[in-house]
Amino acid sequence: MLLEVDNVSKSYGSFRVTRDVSFSVGEGQTLGILGPNGAGKTTLFNLISGDVRVDAGRVRFAGRDVSALRPHQRCRSGIGRSYQVPHPFGNMSVFENLVTAACFGAQASESDAWDIAADILAKTGLLPHANKPAGSLTLLNRKRLELARALATKPRLLLLDEIAGGLTEHEASELVDELRRIKAEGVTMIWIEHVVHALMSIADRLLVINFGEKLAEGEPESVMNNPDVRRVYMGLEA
Q: Top-level CATH class of 1-78+155-238?
């Protein structure tokens, strides 16, 4: 398994955000994560990426316990992520944002970073915007840039936090097409998303979290037909 999350827990004071969550993701797989707002999904990503330290349990990546590593160390080991709200370097160009990610995330040389950035600009549809300030982009292109910056770190595992959130149906469809191409290149992905049909179209498995605990896990159709998932996530009685 590329990623193994074993009984991770995180509390803030008396409030327990995640409780004994375990799952694993194999090389090349896409795992979708669903759950109501406040279920602990982003906290789970923070525990994997190192933005937050686990209180209990461990995170293993590529056979190595990375639970004690800092975020930049995990990034350089092959864990890339996007954030729910894009925060590019607004006064830098799109191209400069990608070069920075490649240099500091992938530890690429300057010349290699330029090549990485040019390749990703073409793949993510950002080439026409390469020289624009990142802060001037539309929401769709800021989302693309958030994805592109994560890709510039050359990840083996890509964590996507609601990357389709706030987009129109057509925009979300364009983004899903890009994610399919990334998946076809062998990148392993874990994707938190509320746009369920987008997630269902690409995920191999779904994990549902509620109140910081794992509620269900398995093949997408099976999980979405689970009575507990229908009740908790969709508000439907079986």
A: alpha beta
Strands ordered across the beta sheet of 79-81: 79-81, 157-161, 188-192, 30-34, 205-210, 213-218
Backbone angles phi, psi at 214, to 5 degrees: -75, 125
Q: Which residue has the tokens 């191999």?
A: 204
Q: Give the burial class of 93: count Cβ atoms within 10 A of its Cβ; 0-12 exposed, 13-18 middle, 19 or more buried.
A: middle
Looking at the chain, the domain(s) classified CATH 3.40.50.300 span: 1-78+155-238
Amino acid at 143: K
Q: Distance of alpha carbon 112 from its chain centroid, rounded? A: 25
The tens digit of pLDDT for each residue in 145-160 reads: 999 999 999 999 999 9
Task: Output the pTM of the full model.
Answer: 0.93
The burial class, CB within 10 Å (0-12 / 13-18 / 19+), for 62 is middle
